[in-house]
Write a structure and sequence with these properties.
Helices cover about 40% and strands about 15% of the residues. The protein is α/β, with parallel strands linked by helices. The structure holds pyridoxal-5'-phosphate.
Length: about 400
């Protein structure tokens, strides 16, 4: 037996809870059980045909080679146009944008670029579970900023302020938020901007769910707030908006000096995003956009359906999401904590969910449900909840 000694950094990392649930769900499926999977964070619809065709065309043309580490210029230009026209922020496509193999990789690059051992990174609690592990991987210290379900998991600037120390280097915001669906409005971003400037804090702004916002809410990018372009690492991508999760394609926009340093991380790891995915992303941005409001409406209708139905199940409530395709369902009625709740649902009813505690202490007593199934299948979930 080889004497395997892992590096400390590997041992720091936890196994992703959502992957653990997915594996358990897959095992049940293998046994022939019908699993209702509410754990998976990706759209349940197909990638639009024009985008798929652009990929086929790209492959036929032989675009299968390395590209510039920053990504093909046409895509960077399309991203710059999008950011200017939709978000009101100007970035130079030559020097201030780079395309990454997924948003996850982009967030890791941002942390690797700024976080030294012991540097503190503020995370809104609950937040997407990979943030904390990525901070740990960079030997930083994740500092949770609690929020409350009874307040829609709204961010309180006073709670952020209380946790700022001389070691605070960055805050990660995700607007709207996975797992809570909470949206951050312009006024709140402005408040956040004030403290970021006052304390010289960088904002890693994960805008990956930008296009999934309900009730007529409009989206404001952190970088569009006065003075914030200089201290924001803007991250956005194609996985969620354009149903392109498996194509692993996203981007970073940041000031020139930051990008010219950060790009080294990509040069020495991924080299570039996959060329075919870049051409598909180019089509996503420059092709028809009528798909986007339709998709948003679909998620909003599902949110509304869940909202009406859950009120008819005695003892249950959820935090009505303002965006994304996630929601947090309170499980106090049938379990002492969220892990137990998630296990009961999977073991007894073959319903896969992620325990809220995986996203931080403020997520306890909740499970994250993904509204990525048709309403008639969701009805089965309500039937099961009634039995608890
Ligand atoms: C909040 C958040 N950020 C980033 C990502 C990463 O997306 P991708 O790597 O597919 O671009 C996800 C995926 O689930 C997410 O939920």
């Amino acid at each position: 037996m080889a004497d395997i000694r892992y590096a400390d950094r590997l041992l720091i990392l936890k196994n992703s809870s959502s992957i653990a649930v997915a594996e358990k769900a897959a095992a049940l499926k293998k046994q022939g059980k019908e699993v209702i999977d509410l754990s998976w964070g990706e759209p349940d619809i197909k990638t639009p045909e024009n985008i798929v065709n652009a990929g086929i065309e790209a492959l036929k043309k032989g675009y299968t080679r390395y590209t510039n580490s920053r990504g093909i210029l046409e895509l960077r230009e399309a991203i710059a146009n999008k950011l200017k026209n939709e978000n009101g922020v100007s970035y130079d496509p030559n020097t201030e944008i780079f395309v990454t193999p997924g948003g996850k990789q982009a967030i890791l690059y941002a942390l690797l670029a700024f976080i030294n051992k012991g540097d503190e990174v503020l995370l809104i609690d609950p937040s997407w579970l990979s943030y904390e592990d990525m901070v740990n991987l960079c030997e930083g210290v994740a500092v949770p900023v609690p929020t409350k379900p009874e307040e829609n998991f709204k961010i309180h600037i006073s709670e952020i302020k209380k946790r700022i120390t001389p070691k605070t280097r960055a805050i990660i915001i995700n607007n709207p938020c996975n797992p809570t669906g909470m949206a951050i409005d312009r006024a709140e971003l402005e408040e956040l901007a004030k403290i970021a400037e006052e304390h010289n804090i960088f904002v890693i702004s994960d805008e990956i769910y930008e296009k999934i916002l309900f009730d007529g809410r409009s989206f404001t990018s952190m970088a569009a707030i006065n003075g914030m372009r200089e201290r924001t690492i803007l991250i956005n991508g194609f996985s969620k908006s354009y149903a392109m999760t498996g194509l692993r394609i996203a981007y970073i926009a940041a000031p020139k000096n930051i990008v010219s340093n950060m790009i080294k991380l990509q040069q020495h790891s991924a080299s570039s995003a996959a060329s075919v995915s870049q051409y598909m992303a180019l089509e996503a941005l420059t092709g028809p956009q009528d798909f986007l409001p339709k998709l948003n409406k679909l998620y909003e209708t599902r949110r509304d359906y869940f909202d009406v139905k859950i009120k008819t199940v005695p003892g249950f409530s959820w935090v009505r999401p303002q965006g994304t395709f996630y929601g947090m369902l309170n499980t106090s009625k049938f379990a002492k904590n969220s892990l137990e709740a998630s296990n009961i649902l999977l073991d007894r009813f073959c319903i896969a969910t992620v325990p809220g505690s995986a996203f931080g202490a403020s997520g306890e007593n909740h499970i994250r449900v993904c509204l990525i199934i048709e309403n008639n299948i969701m009805d089965k979930v309500f039937e099961c909840l009634r039995q608890l």
